[in-house]
Write a structure and sequence with these properties.
about 150 residues; alpha/beta; seven-stranded mixed β-sheet
């Protein structure tokens, strides 16, 4: 599925819609795109929509940060960029099995990502515009994206 986001407010609305569909669910979302494409901005809006009170910023150097959502469930935010040359198992499974997990640069840990996830690719098309390709890779992800307009 392809979406065109023409502004930061479009990105926020997209994140809000995804949050509304994922409340009370367990799901991994992969976010891929070039540096500056808006992956962390999308995650910030997504967390805000879920009621996260803390500031969400890039976990590039810590690899993962966790946040409590308004309903008490967990939002995990990973940045796998620094794991480019690593094939080690870092125990991410529990993050994938409870709450919501957003993974930036997921291609670096592709073998650890659950088969059933939502894959989002963001491409910068202008200063504030983005092209988003969204794909459901399994039954649960398909149920989340079903009827998306």
């Amino acid at each position: 599925m392809k979406l065109i986001l023409n502004s930061l407010s479009d990105t926020e609305a997209f994140a809000q819609k995804m949050a509304d569909r994922l409340k009370d669910k367990t799901m991994t979302i992969t976010l891929d795109g070039d540096l500056g494409a808006g992956k962390t901005a999308w995650t910030r809006f997504f967390g805000k929509a879920l009621g996260v009170k803390r500031t969400i910023n890039s976990p590039t150097f810590t690899i993962m940060k966790s946040y409590r959502t308004q309903d008490g469930s967990m939002l995990y935010h990973m940045d796998a960029y620094r794991l480019e040359d690593g094939n080690q198992d870092l125990g991410f499974e529990e993050c994938f099995e409870e709450g919501l997990c957003v993974v930036e640069w997921s291609n670096y840990i592709a073998q650890q990502i659950p088969a059933d996830h939502i894959a989002i690719s963001i491409r910068e098309t202008g200063e504030t515009s983005r092209e988003v390709i969204m794909e459901a890779t399994g039954k649960n992800a398909q149920a989340v994206l079903e009827g998306w307009e």
